[in-house]
Amino acid sequence: MSSLDSLRQRIDDADRDLLAALSRRMEVVDHILQQKESQRLPLFDTCRERELLARLANQASRHRLDPKLVERVLREVISHSREVQARRVQERRNPDLKKATRVAFQGAVGAYSWSAVGKHFRGNVQPVGLPGFREVVEALQGGQVDLALLPIENTLAGSIHEVYDLLAASRMHVIGEEVLKIEHCLAGLRDVPLEEIRRVLSHPVALQQCGAFLRGLPNAACQAYIDTAEAVREVKRRGDEAQAAIASRDATHRYGLKVLREGISDHPENYTRFWVVSRRPVQVDPRLPAKTSLLLVTDHRQGALVACLTALTDQGVNMTKLESRPRPGSPWQYQFYLDVEGNLDSQAVQKALERIRQRARLLRVLGCYPRFEARSSVPQLKHVRGNGRSEAVPPRSTSSKPTTRRGVRRPLRVSVKDVEIGDGAFAILAGPSVFSSPDQLDQAAALVDCGGGHILLAGDYQGQDDGQGKAAEWIAETGRRHGLPVAFEVHSPSEVAAAARWADLLVAGASNMQNYPLLREAGRQAQPVLLERGLSSTLEELLQAARQIMAEGNQQVLLCERGIRTFAGDTLDLGAVVELKRRTHLPVLVAPNLAARSPSAVIPLSRAARAAGADGLLIRVQAGNACDSSNSLDQPLFVRLVEEAEGS
After folding, report:
1. CA–CA separation, 113 vs 536, rounded Å?
2. pLDDT score at 143
3. Fewest beta carbons within 10 Å, which of 4, 313, 435, 614?
């Protein structure tokens, strides 16, 4: 054996000793975690970590080592130990996490999302590459994979809005986050002069992030491709030395290309944040720094967003991100995505969210999960020149003492477009029970508009089958023509999302009061929901149904009393109005038509409802010559009802 081979053998032996030492260290980390768990001690000891780093960095010179090198290596080891402890604590609290084996991501093997899967799960799962973000979400929803990893924002390109929109429309939960440094390189078939490159393929965002470098290739045209790794594969497939791709070093080597130039990003500090998404939420151990992500829709009026953000400030909850997105189907209205520091189970976050719910149209928790810093915030050292010593830099305090403000659940005011209901605002919703043509609906809308009604309450469409799919569009167009917001009933969970495109108010009828799948789907929409009490339902059952809606995020719920079944037939329960106003902050409306024995009886029942404290009325009016047995009012009676109800 030559002297060089002998030296290399010593290097190999030293590396094996290093691996064995790391293995022994991780075994001790496991034992320490068990002790912390049994004694309920804090998970991380930052003071000890600072002392350890300072002590070993100061001993580096005795071993003829660079203190900065020692610190860098130890920081990685400590960071990995933190990550292992955090993951095992989470797996014990959420056993399903340990069973996850398949993780979906967008792109091909070698893409940055693929690298993020490997970084987050440390090779303990099977990555499943899919062509698009929608396919990733659908695979997770369908159970083909256990988890998904999706990019949510980049430090240069900003937020990935498609991912936000897909998660807002799904029932998925964010359970973790990962941050990956993006390091682009130019890859080609062989090492050719850059001026010979004629075409560069990559994802559009990667091309944008390397704009300055690409402008230095005067002979090269850019071609957008679905993914950075797929761009590398395509260059390999074409076999043209004048073509190159922008991708990671991993993808370049994996597909057998050469790195022509490294570090080609316009800005070196290029990071992408990813969310780990699951079909079920997780609980975050209170010893772990946590983050909670929210979807918020406020009223379209002055100060609404500020009031919600003030609720966070008053509880000392730090907001790390605020992103606005247009609301689908509602021009010039917006929904907001927030990230806040804090565990969803903490008292401060719970109090803040309760106050926000009092002011929000919709508040949905997208997920609570350990912060990325939970495993990477190893303390820094300051190296002092001249004396060869390293000193621990104390961490900056980021906590602030929360201020307390006693919150009182005041009556809710619900906005249906520009019509307000509740907390002193009274509204009349009116329309036909049934209609069979757009003309009949238009006649009823004209009656409501001229008679002084505030919202068009559309009934069931009973016309030709080919008109069923267009009924919602007809209702919305009729409302716009007469300047009235529109409300119509949904009968199944599958109808809700489509109806929300056209309706300003969704109605869950009495027969669906306990159709919880329908109520939960309605709770995921930004439109207010009117919930009718069933004929044989108790008030507690009505309130429980309302909680099903609100638990999904939608706080804009209206309750409706329409009568109960008694020995005398259907009877209006006005005592329920008084009791509901005492027990809940939600507005309460009354629908008197069903309990009335004649159209004229609707008027005194409406006056009585207003006197009992009702916040509005649901009135059925005639729609041309449509067959209607609901004691519908003609125009003179409706005008009289409006005058007496609003004057009472």
Report:
1. 53
2. 95
3. 4
pLDDT in tens, 108-155: 999 999 999 999 988 789 999 999 999 999 999 999 999 999 999 998
Position 627 pLDDT exceeds 70 = no
Which token pair is 498? 């489509």
- The verdict on residue 253 lying in a domain is yes
Please write the tens of the pLDDT for every residue from 398-420: 333 323 333 446 788 898 988 99
The identity of residue 113, as a single letter, is S
**CA dihedral (240, 242, 245, 250) positive or negative:** positive
Q: Which residues contact 366 (CB under 8 A, 6 or more apart)?
A: 167, 168, 173, 174, 293, 294, 295, 337
Q: What is the pLDDT of residue 243?
A: 95
Confidence of residue 528 (pLDDT cuts 50, 70, 90): very high
Task: Quick: pLDDT tens for 472-496.
Answer: 888 999 999 999 999 989 999 998 9
Q: What is the pLDDT of residues 81-115, one digit of tens each?
A: 888 888 888 888 888 888 899 999 999 999 999 99
Separation between Cα atoms, residue 496 and residue 503, nearest integer Å = 10
3-state secondary structure of 224: strand
Q: Which two tokens stand for residue 351?
A: 């109090």
Q: Name the residue range of residue 189's domain.
A: 185-262
Q: Any alpha helices (H) in 239-301, and if so which ranges?
A: 249-254
The domain tally of the chain equals: 2
User: What's the per-residue H, E or C state across 71-140?
Assistant: HHHHHHHHHHHHHHHHHHHHHHHCCHHHHCCEEEEECCCCCHHHHHHHHHHCCCCEEEEECCHHHHHHHH
Q: Distances from the Cα of 11 to the Cαs of 15, 17, 18, 23, 67, in angstroms?
A: 6, 10, 10, 18, 21
- Quick check: is 520 in a domain? yes
- Residue ending a domain, among 236, 262, 288, is 262
Contact between 58 and 388 (Cβ < 8 Å): yes
Report the alpha-carbon distance of residue 98 to residue 141 in Å, rounded.
Answer: 19
Residue ending a domain, among 262, 296, 328, is 262
| Cβ neighbours of residue 418 closer than 8 Å, sequence gap 6 or more | 485
Quote the crossing angle between the two packed helices 635-647 and 602-611, to the nearest 10°.
Answer: 20
The predicted pLDDT at position 293 comes to: 96
Work out the average pLDDT over 273-297. 93
CATH number of the structural domain spanning residue 598: 3.20.20.70
Looking at the whole model, is its pTM more than 0.90? no
Strand partners, 297: 335, 362
Residue 263, SS3? coil
Alpha helices, H only, 216-303: 228-238, 249-254
| Residue 420 covered by a domain | yes
| pLDDT of 58 above 90 | no
Q: What are phi and psi of 8, to 5 degrees?
A: -65, -35
Closest CA to 209 of 185, 189, 179: 185
pLDDT at 410: 77
Query: Phi-psi category of 293—alpha, beta or left, where left has phi over 0 and alpha has psi -120 to 50?
Result: beta
Q: Can you give the length of the chain in residues?
A: 648
| Active-site amino acid positions | 272, 274
